[in-house]
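Sanity check. The docking grid for adenosine-5'-diphosphate depends on where the pocket ends up, so I'm generating a full predicted complex first rather than guessing from homology. Inputs follow.
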Amino acid sequence: MNERVNLLLVDDREDGLLALEVVLRSPRYNLLKASSGADALRKLLDHDVAVILLDVQMPGMDGFETASLIKTHERLKGVPIIFVTGIHGDPRLVNQGYEVGAIDYVCKPFEPYILQSKVSVLVDLHVKNAQEARRKVEAEYAAREQEALRASEKRFRDLSEELAAANAELRQFAWVASHDLKEPLRVVASYVTLLSRCYEGKLSPEADEYLGYVKEGVLRMNSLLEGLLSLTGISQEEVRSRPVELNRVFESVTQSLEVLIRENQAEVTRDELPLVKADPAQIGQVLQNLIANAIKFKRRDEPPRVHVGAIRRDGEWVLNVRDNGIGIKPQYTDRIFGVFQRLHSLDEYPGAGVGLAICKKIVDKHGGRIWVDSEPGAGSTFFFQLPHQESA
Ligand code: ADP
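Predicted complex below; grid placement will be based on this.
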């Protein structure tokens, strides 16, 4: 520790202070001077002092009174005091001094070397104590920090485990619910089909209308359950990444969508697409959902034109599916990636509202990002980016 320590020299006489100053001058010490007991107390309150050299004979408050006051103060009472007296070895004075807490005595005229060594021993002790106290505080602080860190790590682990368990339970619940609900729905669907086959046109027009509603409801419920099942299925599925030729994925997706493309007189084109590292089935699902939407959400005045492109940005491929459809208002561009979020009635555009949620789930699981740029009435471009890709 290279900090200077403070010594407080107290004497009412200039020559007394000077004598102490000359003997104790050292780069280790910072010498504070006080010319009375009151002045000494003030200096002690303002500074951290290692040793006090206190003259006994002072007018007003003498050295003993000053020492008694110092000893009543909680922070100051441990500071060692060396009394400086002119009266050689008077046992009464010596005793009085020890009673009020003196550590030592020197008599004037003092031997410089003796005073220096007495002060030096006390200063060493002070420095050691201060270091010890600091170490203790630091150790206590570090221990408390460690404890707090351990506690918060444990809390974080517990919460993550709880969250993972709750998530798994919820996924399991959604899967079981949608799976099990399909069975009674199948029964309803079969009997409605039977009913309409046997009785359609034979009952009243209202009965036919009601049967129609039941059939629609069954179809809708079925499509919702299918959507939920594929979403929970995707959530549970592992990502098995390998190099995938996106050109080939595009061909197989457009083949699967052949009927939709033909019925809508859609034109679906592509750039030269890259080779990427991904789960082929899952990435095919993303492309299929995006292309199907691009065709489905077409404008009335124009047949759908869909283009799949690829741009290399910061060493990564960003794929995009652009259409000339109805577009999406800016306030909905985040919401549409949520489950069952749809912006239109079923009469206008059919669908379960899980297609984009599935795309997002897949892209998230690949560690990528999906987003949309759109202008209502002019079309939309859906982008998705996949990390760690290999160029074609
Ligand atoms: P679904 O197509 O079954 O409704 P999605 O999750 O695929 O469900 O899409 C959610 C909603 O986002 C759609 O209902 C539609 O409002 C909007 N949307 C998706 N793709 C497009 C698109 N290409 N153009 C305009 N709107 C779209």
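Relevant for the grid: Residues 112-199 form the longest helix (88 residues).
Also worth noting: The mean pLDDT is 90.
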